Structure formats: C-alpha cells, structure tokens
Amino acid sequence: MIIVNGKVFELVKEYREAFNEQVFREKYTEALDKYDVIVGDISSNILRLKGFTTKDPTSPNYVKNIPDYINESCNYNCPYFILKRVKNNE
Question: 28: left (phi > 0), else alpha (psi -120 to 50), else beta?
Fold first, then answer.
C-alpha cells in the first residue's frame, strides 16, 4: 500500500520494474487526487503520471482506455505501472 496526500493506493500492475515510491511521491500532485487509477510511465528516465476514472464511461480518461493510452501515448515497450486507489475512511 502506498499513501500519498491521504490517498491510499495499491500497485496492480508493474511492467519492467517501473515503480519507485520515492519518485512517485515527488511527482504526485493534488490534481491527481480526483482520479481512481493512476498510470505512470517512464521515458528518458522521466516519470509521467496520468489519472483515470472509473465513474464516467464517456470520459477519455475512463479506466478502460488505459491500454489505448499505453499503446498510443507512451514510448514502445516503456516501463510503466498502474496504481488503483483503495477506498479509505476520508
């Protein structure tokens, strides 16, 4: 479990050892608080984070669009990870 800004996440997928908790904490911003799932991908040793939602199927940031995001917006075969927010008592 990873806790950032009072939000609890669990690592659900990691490809090519992409997840580094310290780097994730440094890159995480409050703008990501509204998302249920976060994808992190690494290109040129730089972590990029993108949020996805489970609530609105019409949104381009809907969780089912993650494979498209990875295939179309990330470098080929780049390391990436997927974190899912765990519901906590906020």
Answer: beta
Q: Please write the tens of the pLDDT for every residue from 10-46.
A: 999 999 999 999 999 999 999 999 999 999 999 999 9
For the chain, what is the HEC assignment? CEEECCEEEEEEEEECCCCCHHHHHHHCCHHHHHCCEEEEEEECCEEEEEEEECCCCCCCCEHHHHHHHHHHHCCCCCCEEEEEEECCCC
* CATH annotation of 2-85: 3.50.4.20
pTM: 0.92
Distance CA(72)–CA(57), nearest Å, equals 19
